[in-house]
From TrEMBL:
Keywords: Membrane, Transmembrane, Transmembrane helix. The keyword Zinc does not apply. This is Integral membrane protein. The chain crosses the membrane at residues 12-33, 54-74, 94-116, 128-146, 178-199, 206-230, 250-270, 277-297, 325-343. It comes from Actinoplanes couchii.
Length: 364
């Protein structure tokens, strides 16, 4: 595991950032709590029952974080699958420690934020957001480390592969495993909870913007269309293909996601007759994306090999390609939820307007 183990420089930097981030979050929490207490005179208690949706999301995120560090995390070149702790080898497990400390702090602050969201949102919110930023930075750092490892391993192994019928050989690449997926899911879910609580009455609007942004990020590249390719001069380069280059049913990938993003932002201002159709289309996003993937299966196999050879790659290995999967799954889950929430909000708004008109009409 020498190629996965952190260097002394990494150990120093990650340790300093972890300790500094935790101390800063706790100091910020203490300062805001003292300011709130002096402004109110007494400490505020919980107001009302926590929202079930937020509690469910926070619980799911905490469970995902717990198991993310305990199951298979990465497969470096498909020869030695390791957990987050084991990837350190004999070096100090600094990434595992940073993950454990920051995830524990994030779960704790998120729970406090949900419990006291009506009264202490401005006290627990900023420290929770800081803890979420710390965890996101850690996951991005780990991804960049694994992506660098992927490039190194492929550069070493790809020149020894003989060209075959298929241009891609995924067995050469470094692959993330279920632990990585659970860790990213947990961090993203708890970050979303913190952002939604801080958004307060603008929760639905913020969720809509986030989902539309994810749809835009998912539009350019389909999953399984990113490769490391070997040129004749021995150079290894990264290449990714869009749905427009692949053709066939894959052509619909980007337009559908762009339409989903546009409709999500337009639903609040659309006329009532059009709004229903737009909500149904967005709610059916999983159907459209799964259908495009299924119909594109045969086209992907044939076209990707042709595209790789046309670009001068006789041998290629599928790259880690995690972001396209993450964006796709996030849109699959978030788009229907936001669509249903938008429909409920529109229905409540229509009912409220009808009630106001009825009460304003003088009785005879």
């Amino acid at each position: 595991m020498h190629y996965l183990a952190p260097s002394p420089t990494e150990v120093t930097i990650v340790t300093a950032l972890t300790v500094g981030g935790v101390v800063l979050a706790l100091v910020l929490l203490a300062v805001l709590a003292m300011s709130h207490r002096s402004g109110r005179g007494t400490a505020a208690g919980p107001a009302g029952r926590p929202a079930r949706g937020l509690v469910f999301l926070a619980t799911a995120g905490a469970v995902a974080l717990f198991f993310g560090a305990r199951v298979e995390f990465v497969d470096p070149g498909r020869d030695d699958i390791v957990t987050l702790f084991e990837m350190h080898g004999t070096a100090m497990p600094v990434y595992w420690l940073a993950y454990s400390v920051n995830s524990g702090l994030l779960v704790l602050l998120t729970g406090v934020l949900i419990r006291y969201r009506h009264t202490l949102r401005r006290v627990a919110g900023p420290p929770a957001l800081l803890a979420a930023a710390q965890m996101n930075a850690l996951m991005i750092t780990l991804y960049l480390k694994l992506d660098h490892l992927d490039a190194q391993l492929v550069a070493q192994r790809l020149p020894g592969v003989q060209p075959g019928p298929a241009a891609g050989d995924a067995a050469l690449s470094s692959m993330t495993k279920i632990g990585w997926g659970l860790a990213v899911l947990g961090v993203a879910t708890l970050t979303l909870v913190v952002v939604l609580v801080l958004a307060g009455p603008h929760e639905l609007r913020v969720a809509t913007w986030i989902t539309a942004g994810l749809a835009l990020l998912a539009a350019p590249v389909m999953p399984d269309s990113s490769f490391w390719g070997l040129r004749d001069d021995g150079a290894v380069e990264h290449v990714a293909y869009t749905g427009f280059e692949i053709g066939g049913p894959a052509l619909w990938w980007a337009p559908v996601l762009l339409l989903v993003a546009a409709l999500l932002c337009a639903i609040p201002v659309l006329p009532a007759r059009v709004r229903g159709a737009a909500i149904l289309f967005v709610a059916a996003t999983p159907v459209w994306l799964i259908l495009i993937n299924v119909l594109s299966y045969d086209t992907l196999d044939a076209r990707l090999a042709e595209l790789l050879r046309a670009d001068g790659f006789d041998v290629a290995a599928q790259s880690m390609g995690v972001p396209p999967y993450l964006f796709m799954v996030a849109v699959l889950i978030a788009a229907p939820v936001v669509a249903v929430r938008s429909w409920r909000a529109a229905s409540k708004g229509s009912s409220a307007r009808s009630s106001r008109r009825a009460s304003a009409t003088p009785s005879r």
